[in-house]
């Protein structure tokens, strides 16, 4: 789980630093894997030959082959699209809900704020993976959008609490108080003054939380309650690799390394954005 320090406001996220630079490079590569995997490999992940089953890595095939004789590098590259799309989709859904409810609760206060706060306190106590296991175990069909929905169900409270806290803090800022004194209506006050300040911490948090979502999909799929074949994802590769790890360690280790790099890239992005905001804020 990303550090609570990510909740601190991050104004002026424009200063570069080492973690941010490394994250941008790594995420650029991951983005290329997801968007144009065919530009990074000439092998087709669906072109399999049982004669190549579990053949170890070589110069021509750096990741080797899986149990079905499919090129593992190609499957890893094409699987990036599903894993990253899933994480981004969850962030978009939860982010939109958090911005709407969190801003309204933080601005209105009173009963609405109290109800929203109590619900999020209770709901956020349910671990992401445990909640995912419970809900996904109850359904036979587990496609990308089913997993997205389940992860979103257990992720929105975290996002909402950040936006609510950011909204309440923004309302105490001098320029917001001045705008209100000058007669700015609720709509203008929220959209022009409060929301930009309240959303910045959410962007920082979401950058790191994307890594949590990518790893959550992999854990759920590895455990047998996540995505199902023939969907290609990093979680599917780990599940398949785990079945043959004793005979062909490369089938599990190499996709796992790519997953670790992806998670690290998102964590570095969150750290870099937080550091950039702290540096700019302290000028």
Automatic annotation (TrEMBL):
Subcellular location: Cell membrane
GO CC annotation terms, alphabetical: plasma membrane
Keyword Transmembrane helix tagged: yes
Principal location listed in the UniProt entry: membrane
One Pfam family matching this protein: BPD_transp_1
SUPFAM superfamilies recorded: MetI-like
Membrane topology: Multi-pass membrane protein
Keywords: Cell membrane, Membrane, Transmembrane, Transmembrane helix, Transport
Listed GO biological process terms: transmembrane transport
UniProt keyword Transmembrane helix, yes or no: yes
Domain ABC transmembrane type-1: 80-270
PROSITE patterns, A to Z: ABC_TM1 (PS50928)
Residue ranges of the TM segments: 20-40, 84-107, 119-138, 144-163, 202-228, 248-269
Family as reported in the entry's similarity comment: Belongs to the binding-protein-dependent transport system permease family.
Name used for this protein in its record: Oligopeptide transport system permease protein
């Amino acid at each position: 789980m990303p550090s609570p320090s990510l909740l601190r406001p991050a104004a002026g996220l424009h200063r570069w630093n080492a973690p941010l630079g490394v994250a941008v490079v790594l995420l650029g590569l991951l983005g290329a894997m997801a968007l144009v995997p065919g530009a990074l490999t000439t092998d087709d992940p669906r072109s399999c030959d049982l004669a190549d089953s579990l053949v170890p890595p070589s110069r021509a095939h750096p990741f080797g082959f899986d149990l079905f004789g499919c090129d593992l590098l190609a499957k890893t590259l094409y699987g990036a699209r599903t894993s990253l799309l899933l994480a981004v989709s969850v962030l978009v859904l939860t982010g939109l809900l958090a911005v709407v409810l969190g801003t309204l609760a933080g601005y209105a206060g009173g009963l609405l704020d109290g109800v929203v706060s109590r619900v999020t306190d209770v709901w956020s106590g349910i671990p992401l993976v445990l909640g995912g296991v419970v809900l996904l175990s109850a359904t036979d069909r587990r496609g990308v959008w089913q997993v997205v929905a389940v992860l979103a169900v257990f992720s929105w409270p975290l996002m909402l609490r950040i936006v609510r806290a950011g909204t309440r803090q923004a309302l105490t800022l001098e320029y917001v108080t001045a705008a209100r004194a000058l007669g700015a209506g609720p709509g203008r006050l929220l959209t022009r003054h409060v929301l930009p300040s309240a959303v910045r911490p959410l962007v920082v948090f979401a950058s790191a939380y994307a890594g949590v979502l990518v790893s959550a999909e992999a854990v759920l799929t590895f455990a047998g309650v996540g995505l199902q074949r023939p969907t290609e994802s990093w979680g599917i590769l780990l599940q398949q690799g785990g079945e043959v790890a004793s005979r062909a360690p490369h089938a599990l280790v190499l996709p796992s390394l790519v997953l670790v790099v992806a998670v690290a890239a998102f964590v570095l992005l969150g750290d870099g954005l937080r550091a950039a905001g702290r540096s700019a804020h302290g000028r």
